[in-house]
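Sample log: ATP synthase protein I.
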Amino acid sequence: MSGSGPVTVPAVQDEEPERPLPDLAALPADPRWRVEHLPFLSAVCMALLLFAASAGYLTGGAQSAVGAAAGVLIVTISYTMSTLVIAWADTVRPALLMPLGLLTYTVKYTILGVILAYGVSADWSGKTALGLGIVAGVMVWTGVQAWWMYRRAPRK
């Protein structure tokens, strides 16, 4: 080592300059409006589940009844989970909506893909009813939720 002197480390600045916080939208006084549709939608989906199981049983026996009911139940659980995660994120910190929403959808569709991939490859007589139950669940949930929001929207 040649005759170099002591090494000096530049001083670390501990404090950041003060910046004003961004203006954030105020949270609503009552955040329950985000999930107020869930009891009604759950009741409609349970009625659909009973109808799907009955129709499955009448057309294809017990295996089809289980498949149709499972399809509706998968959609009901999936949509309820999304609603709860998004409502929670919006009440805690609205900036979490996008990442948590995308994570929720990724997890849901990965699980649904695994279920459907296994179901398609299985030699199970209820797999067609499972697919039809999923389609019926999606259509009914989406339609009832759209009706609910239309009914709730203020008229001008």
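Observation: The chain has one domain: 35-152.
Observation: The chain has a mean pLDDT of 84.
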